[in-house]
Design a protein that fits this description.
Length: 250
Amino acid sequence: MDRILYTAMSGAKQAMEVQSVVSHNLANVDTSGFRAQLAVMRAVPVQGDGHLPTRVSAAATTPGVDWRAGPLNATGRDLDIAISDDGLLAIQDPAGNEAYTRRGDLQVDGNGLLRSGGHPVIGERGPMIIPLGAEVFIGTQGVVSIIGEGQKADAIVEIGRLKLVSPGDQVLQRGADGLFRLPPVDGEAQVLPADDQIIVRTGVLEGSNVNPVESMVAMIDVARRYEMQMKVISSADENAQRANSLLSLS
């Protein structure tokens, strides 16, 4: 069988992988603080016995994340925050480890736990607890204050501070859950220190940085690439059948 089949097959397979990345980005076009995942295709020489220098395979890679800021939308909601620059909000993942997100649509659950995207928000002393029924205010430095239920405005009390971090030159890994983490060292999870210079804006929500038009164009482009690879496979199969027919006549 001609090696072109393997070449086209690798291209079709990797096109499907890129399509899944584009689809994931498009599905999160309305997710607060979402950062688009990048995907590229590259040529890889075929390895193994009998390889030809004219044959290369395709490989899809996700080299990183698009860190461009998303649009800011005023909501007027006290628990909606937008984080400045490259800052991130520290949260606790399901495994109990520290992870990071740009998502700023905070919620208080039925137990008084402050959450972002369903994950507990981390403060100076661990996950932040808000007294039920209290009115919550978040300052520009991430300081969380409350007015207890039924109390007057002068009874405002500071209960903690959001842990805001900046990755700086460190490269964060993006997990399948969409959260960012530092690469582990010797199997141990690593955390970033709090950064006092990170500013938050209250009543403002950062949207996804995914451009829906660009994503739709990319989806169509990848689909056409996949169709092209399948046509190559079909043509190679037809050529093989014709060659077999000629050999049978001899």
